Amino acid sequence: MKIRVITTGGTIDKVYFDATSEYEIGEPTVPHVFREAAVGVEWELQPLLRKDSLEMTEADRVTIREACEAAGETAILITHGTDTMSDTAESLIGIEGKTIVLTGALAPARFRVTDAIFNLGLALGAVQSKPPGVYLAMNGTVFEAGKVRKNKEAGRFEATGL
To answer: In whole angstroms, what is the distance from residue 73 CA to residue 43 CA?
Structure first.
């Protein structure tokens, strides 16, 4: 199985620029994380966007959907900012014959203390084991698209009970 990894930006890829005291989205961190974890599954990186998810538009979601539909792989892992990840996941529902898993991080992957590595590992396992459909892999749980939301106060994702 070959996995398509599509990166769209978000906190997972943010870099802190001390001179300006600001964060900007940098190069995708997935290759570094996968290399350090000695990931043995075949995968291909497709950097698609470099956006904070709060800046994500419906046109961006169409671009992501088109990339998923055009991918030759049936397993697709997408890194995405957490604030609108649920919205993007819902926009991908209905793509036939593909398992699509979105993940991200609440702290940049380049930080010493981050959830990025754990979330990427969870997403990598989910994209290989779940049946076709769209999922979010965050906080140790794999959620079905359309049935999850980000609880900003608690700093985690939770099922909506739909």
So the answer is: 9
Burial 92-124 (b: 16+ CB within 10 A, else e): beebeebbbbbbbbbebbeeeebbbbebbbbbb
Q: What share of the chain is helix, strand, coil (3-state, %, to 5)?
A: 30, 35, 35
Instruction: Tell me the pLDDT tens digit for each residue of 98-108.
Output: 999 999 998 88
Count: domains in the chain: 1
Residue 54: phi, psi to the nearest 5?
-70, -20
Q: Is 44 helix (H, G, I), strand (E, B) or coil?
A: strand
Instruction: Compute the Cα dihedral for 58, 61, 62, 63 and give only its sign.
Output: positive
Residue 36 CB contacts under 8 Å (≥ 6 apart), including other chains: none
Active-site positions? 82
Q: What is the span of the domain harbouring residue 50?
A: 2-159
CA 23 to chain centroid, in Å, comes to 19
pTM for the whole structure: 0.93
